[in-house]
Amino acid sequence: MSSSRRCSRTACGRSAVNTLTYVYADQTAVLGPLATYAEPHAYDLCDVHSERLSAPRGWEVLRLAPDPAAQGPTEDDLLALADAVREAARPLPPQRPAPAQETGREVTRRGHLRVLSND
User: Fold this and answer.
1) How many CB atoms lie within 10 A of CB 20?
2) Of 71, 57, 62, which Cα lies nearest the Cα of 21?
3) Across the chain, what does the average pLDDT equal?
4) Measuring CA to CA, which residue among 57, 50, 60 is closest to residue 22?
5) Mapping DSSP to helix (H, G, I), strand (E, B) and coil, where does residue 78 land?
6) Sign (positive/negative) of CA torsion 10, 13, 14, 16?
7) What is the pLDDT of residues 40-88, one digit of tens each?
8) Measuring CA to CA, which residue among 80, 63, 66, 14 is closest to residue 36?
9) Residue 13 to residues 16, 58, 72, 90: CA-CA distances in angstroms?
10) Is-contact 18 44, C-beta < 8 A?
């Protein structure tokens, strides 16, 4: 199965390049760049069907062009990646002793908690 998404129009096998969503409260159809993931209330359209899109009478069509500067990773993306690398490089916290190595004996349990006595 192909990883690229297909156009939502019936009998169209072309790859989707745009995503169409409706804002019913504003009577607006918004056509923008292909969404990161498919959503049930959005329609992925190929370039042909994106160009021929029309909306119901009285509705407005907003066509959002992709930002050329946003094609690569942003500064926020790079900072998030650096933070993740730093977090992965931190030393692990000291290990808790195993239950057999604990001093004291178990008196009772309350759910997942244990009550120990130091007798």
Assistant:
1) 20
2) 62
3) 84
4) 60
5) helix
6) positive
7) 899 999 999 999 999 989 999 999 987 666 667 778 888 888 899 988 8
8) 66
9) 9, 31, 28, 48
10) yes
